[in-house]
Design a protein that fits this description.
Layout (H helix, E strand, L loop, with lengths): L13 E4 L6 E2 L5 E9 L6 E8 L3 E2 L3 E2 L4 E8 L1 E3 L2 E3 L3 E5 L4 E2 L2 E2 L3 E7 L10 E4 L7 E2 L7 E6 L7 E7 L3 E2 L3 E3 L3 E8 L1 E3 L2 E3 L3 E5 L3 E3 L2 E2 L3 E7 L3
Length: 224
């Protein structure tokens, strides 16, 4: 745990309601961020953030040691690999370099230095395409989009859509879990979480999720 970190004790549950945070400037003009967690140096550590690009803004070229994970929430995020609209999911592996920008503006969820390892795959999933959403194999009425399940690596990521009135059984997370609310809201015994709320449940913890209104979630497991 670093002295100047943010929610950097991975043995503790972390809860952040992103809608209630103020935008803070990044090192680049026109690019703003809301940090959800950070450990290590201020501009070179492990971090999870909501980032907003104003129309026409851009970031200087930079590498991504230990990888980068992006989910486009609004607008269009671009770099030399293409234009990525709402629902686009990107994993840029260790060693990837780019100079990202957004002509119309965008809001993205970004996770830096959380995908280490040489030889890992570049991943692109267009979850904005409804054809990507499939019936969930275990939860009645739910749909999901698998995002990452790479042999030899522990983390698993997917998007999950739960219909109104869903109540899931209590689940234990041997290696932790993160949830980020894309749409709607859900609740558990620890609280209620609306749009852009982020929670991290430590290894060995449990919770029981339910949603009255329905929700879409980003889910990450097995990485803590």
């Amino acid at each position: 745990m670093s002295d100047d970190g943010l929610h950097d004790d991975f043995s503790a549950r972390a809860i952040v309601h992103g809608q209630g945070l103020s935008w803070a400037p990044s090192p680049m003009p026109g690019v703003w961020r809301k940090r959800l967690e950070r450990s290590g140096p201020a501009e070179a550590g492990r971090v999870t953030s909501i980032v907003r690009y104003e129309p026409g803004s851009r970031f200087r070229a930079h590498p991504h040691p230990e990888g980068e994970e992006i989910l486009v929430l609004e607008g269009v995020f671009s770099d030399h690999t293409g234009d990525h609209g709402p629902g686009s999911y990107l994993i840029n592996p260790e060693g990837f370099e780019h100079a990202p920008f957004s002509e119309p503006g965008c809001v993205i969820l970004v996770k830096l230095r959380q995908h280490p390892g040489e030889g890992r795959r570049t991943i692109r999933v267009d979850a904005g395409d409804e054809a990507c959403w499939k019936p969930h194999p275990e939860v009645a009425g739910a749909r999901w989009v698998p995002l990452h399940d790479e042999p030899g690596w522990p983390e698993r990521m997917h998007l999950l859509e739960l219909p109104a009135g869903t109540r899931l059984p209590r689940v234990r997370f041997p290696r932790g879990e993160e949830l980020f609310v894309l749409e709607g809201s859900y609740a558990d015994e620890h609280g209620t979480y609306g749009r852009h709320s982020w929670t991290r449940h430590p290894p060995g913890s449990t919770h029981q999720l339910h949603t009255d209104a329905g929700c879409r979630l980003y889910v990450k497991k097995g990485h803590l």
